[in-house]
Structure to design on (146 residues):
């Protein structure tokens, strides 16, 4: 079974969403974790927009990458440009997949603007994770002759 770590800056939005979608869409195809270079509480907007997609993040806990010291992962997925260029050295991985996903917490504006930014991020994370699952986790078979 493949081990996958999703790494982000703070493990409060993008990596948490990615871990949740991996567990939802690829259950049984791997062990999925998320971490950040630092940890922050899970963003309330992330909780809200994921709940709207029937994914509950209330049981998720923010973790730093140190929680995974000396573990080998089959895949490291980075979802912020900072973590792509400076992944920590206290664990190893066989394959690195990067998705540039903007941090919606950086968006200024009223509640509607922020919610919209988080919805956009949720959809981008979902699209990237489904792409990853299709390319790297699901078994590939030859098409049937018709």
């Amino acid at each position: 079974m493949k081990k996958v770590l999703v790494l982000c800056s703070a493990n409060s939005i993008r990596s948490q969403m990615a871990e949740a979608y991996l567990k939802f869409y690829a259950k049984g195809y791997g062990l999925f974790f998320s971490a950040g270079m630092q940890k922050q509480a899970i963003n309330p907007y992330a909780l809200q927009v994921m709940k709207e997609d029937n994914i509950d993040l209330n049981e998720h806990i923010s973790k730093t990458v140190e929680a995974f010291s000396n573990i080998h992962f089959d895949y490291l997925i980075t979802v912020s440009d900072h973590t792509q260029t400076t992944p920590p050295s206290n664990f190893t991985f066989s394959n690195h997949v990067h998705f540039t996903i903007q941090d919606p917490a950086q968006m200024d504006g009223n509640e509607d603007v922020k919610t919209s930014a988080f919805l956009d991020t949720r959809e981008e994370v979902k699209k990237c994770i489904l792409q990853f699952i299709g390319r790297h986790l699901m078994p590939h078979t030859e098409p049937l002759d018709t």
